[in-house]
Amino acid sequence: MAVYRYRTLRRTLITLMWIAIVLVYLFPYTWMVMTGFRQPIDTLTMPPRLIFSPTLDGFRYIFTHTGFQHYLFNSIVVSVSATTLVIVIAALAAYALAHLTKRRGFLLAILVTRMVPGVAVVIPFYLVTSKLGQLDTYHVLILIFTAFNLPFAIWLLRSFFREIVPELREAAIIDGCSEVKVFTSIMVPLCMGGIIATGVFVFIATWNEFLFALVLTNSRVPTAPLAILGFRTEYGTQWGAIGAAALLISTPVIAFAILMQKYLVRGLTMGSVR
After folding, report:
1. What is the pLDDT of residue 176?
2. 155, 91 in Cβ contact below 8 A?
3. CA 31, CA 70: separation in Å to the nearest integer?
């Protein structure tokens, strides 16, 4: 009887612990959703009201007064383009580093470039881009986002390609396959889970990037995170608009991660069981 009570108490404590962890992690997102659907007075009241009459005023404001759809479109173009470029280049580089060469120095150089903080190079990038007359353009953001995410993608994809035994490639070469055929027909399908997992991480990083978009864009191609800056004016902070914009910015990332969840888990667990 005592053992049964101990196990019941243990399960109850573990359940309560997990509930507390979930509440802590979900609280910021829940508060953001509530802010988007509340009147500003409900947000500013102390203590804030948890029970309120929902309103869509914040969503109407960002689409009718700020052109938020333009910011979202820019984010989609930049993020999808940069993610596609990163995956294509990183997959080729990772395959070569995993099966065609063993140059540790090149891998170290890639890692060092990933360690450089963006704030340390944003001014040089701005000066060069300004001299070339390429400020506030899509391709500048795409190229910079690609360059900053490539080291991470190469290192991650290299670990996935290394899980494929070299004998498989050697057998394909003996059967007459070229390196391109081996890569496209054998390596890529076997590493598809890892490639998609890497794509999810890269897409999230490019979608949420703020610093370079802030410095290198103005009015033509500002991305969605920059839109929130305009909701703090001399007339006050538009809390409903901030909550609505934050909800719309985070929703595509969450939806994309959920849709790719099975590939994400499969990719991250590659090689854990042999």
Report:
1. 84
2. no
3. 26
From first CA to last CA, the distance across the chain in angstroms is 42
CA distance 153 to 193: 14
Give the CA distances from residue 240 to residues 50, 86, 135, 227, 244, in Å, rounded to whole numbers and listed in that order.
Answer: 15, 36, 31, 13, 6
Residue found by looking up tokens 């901030």 in the block: 242
**Cis, bond preceding 47 (omega within 30 deg of 0):** yes
pLDDT recorded at residue 273: 44
Between CA 71 and CA 224 the distance in angstroms is 5
Give yes or no for a contact between 147 and 185, defined as CB atoms under 8 angstroms apart. Answer: no
Between the alpha carbon of residue 136 and those of residues 53, 83, 139, 144, the distances in Å are: 41, 19, 9, 13
Measured over the CA atoms of residue 85, residue 88, residue 91 and residue 96, the dihedral's sign is negative
CA distance 224 to 206: 11
Q: Is 225 left (phi over 0), alpha (psi -120 to 50) or beta?
A: alpha
Indicate the pTM of the whole model: 0.83
Q: Which residues of the chain have pLDDT under 70?
A: 1-4, 104, 262-274
Strand locations in the chain, DSSP E? 232-233, 236-237
DSSP state of 96: I
Q: Is residue 87 a contact partner of residue 195, using CB atoms and an 8 Å limit?
A: yes
Q: Which two tokens stand for residue 182?
A: 């081996």
SS3 annotation, 149-189: HHHHHHHHHHHHHHCCCHHHHHHHHHCCCCHHHHHHHHHHH
